[in-house]
Predict the structure.
Amino acid sequence: MKKEIQLQSTFTEYDDISDLPEQDRLLVAEARKSVGQAYAPYSHFQVGAALRLENGVILRGNNQENASYPIGLCAERVAVFAAGANYPGIRILSLAITANSNHFHVNKPITPCGACRQAIAEYEHRYQQPIRLIMVGESGKVLVADSIQHFLPYQFNADDLQVKTS
Ligand code: THU
């Protein structure tokens, strides 16, 4: 016996940032501020993230590169780790991501890399709280997903290790 399993991911696309709900728009503005503070002297690709916690706090993160290239960290992980470090136990509700490049115009949404998908999934699982993802470029359409699940089906998480997190 065999069966085919088909999974579905759902995203919402907006033509413009002005079409977003206000809370999302504000978070995108924060992510854009964060882009300007990125440290990306090697790739010249600056990524900014901003997340909203359930207590209303907004935290920013941006990519932090290193002369030893692989140890640099993406904006999304800087942001979610800052939340985990400074606000343990406080759920993350939403995360906005954007990017600029010194070499070209980023005219489409920037989506989290594979490692960041896994890191974001950890916090969804930890708090049993879907994280809304709002992704934009410097211009162009806006992509929204209401959970990292849509980017990472069959995710590996603490359930597979049979351990409890909090
Ligand atoms: N980067 C991020 O910060 N987030 C992503 O989701 C994709 C890539 C960073 C890593 C590196 O500093 C630069 O963008 C180029 O890959």
Observations:
- The helical segments are 22-35, 75-86, 114-127, 158-161.
- Residues 40, 43, 45, 47, 63, 65, 72, 74-76, 112-113, 116 surround tetrahydrodeoxyuridine (CB under 6 Å).
- The mean pLDDT is 97.
